[in-house]
Amino acid sequence: QVQLVESGGGSVQAGGSLRVSCAASGLTFRTYTMGWFRQAPGKEREFVATINWSGGTRSYADSVKGRFTISRDNNKNTVYLQMNSLKPQDTAVFYCAASNVGRATSDVRLYDYWGQGTQVTVSS
Predict the structure, then answer these.
(1) Phi, psi at 31, each rounded to 5°
(2) What is the mean pLDDT of residues 99-118?
(3) Which of 67, 72, 77, 114 counts the most CB atoms within 10 A of its CB?
């Protein structure tokens, strides 16, 4: 049974930082592309960042480029999202996801497994 469990969300003031983590089990983590997505109230789920199996390829949404960093530790079966210079518009539930597509991808349809999400709230 595949499980993706996010942690590290919370509340922070604008300009602050948070790191969210996603621990994976039940899959061969080192072979999966991992992604972070977010969903704000009343909006569709949107791509945030993706990283390929080795960590050698990473891609970001324009809205977070230069502020967020995705990374992974294949020995710990964990993917991270470091978020700096947070803005109120970053407020959302953040989800991690796993894809066996074989490359980094922002396409939500290509992700096979999803976590339950973790809330990130940024106040002005």
Answers:
(1) -100, -5
(2) 96
(3) 72
